[in-house]
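Entry for the shared binder. Reason: the reviewer on the internal report wants the predicted structure included alongside the sequence.
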Amino acid sequence: MTTGDLVDASIAREFTNLGWWWMRRGRSFEARGIGKTLDLISKVLTEQGPFDGILGFSQGASLAIVISSLLANPSDGPLSLGDVDHPQIKFLVLAGAFQLEVPEYEYLYKQPFTMPSLHMVGTYDTVVDPERSKIVQGYFDSPDIFEFVGGHFIPQSPKCARVMRAFLTQFIPALGESENEQSATSTDVAAGTVAVSA
């Protein structure tokens, strides 16, 4: 769903909130609307793909993990992307990520994620507790972690820009920095370590 799609009056009436799905607490969590979301994702993957990587924030980060899991193991559980023919995702950039805490979706996290990933976590995030993001990091073989002082947002600091550029350059060589630009240092981010921005 793009904001351009909301121009269509029938779609605008259907989507009054720009969340992809809603988590409801009761006796258990329920992810309402995730089936419609995955149908749309399947259509986008088929018609506009292939895609090398996904950048996701909050619900989008959780959805990026679900998409990656479903592409790697298409028939392991109740969620599906249908008959989509798309290669596996090569990398993920996740900010404020969390696991879908629905028992029937636990299978999505059983296989370790082997693709490179960059995880951005705000130390003062009150929407997605940093501990929830750390749980997600544990599902990845070698996550790069960028921890910053802040809340539930993607930081716009020069340090974050350097970290993202350094991470993405391995997939998009054209992003390589010129001699005049500062490169990310090992203190900015390293596999399996945490860097805190000032």
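Summary line for the report: The beta strands are 22-24, 30-32, 53-57, 91-95, 117-122, 144-148, 196-197.
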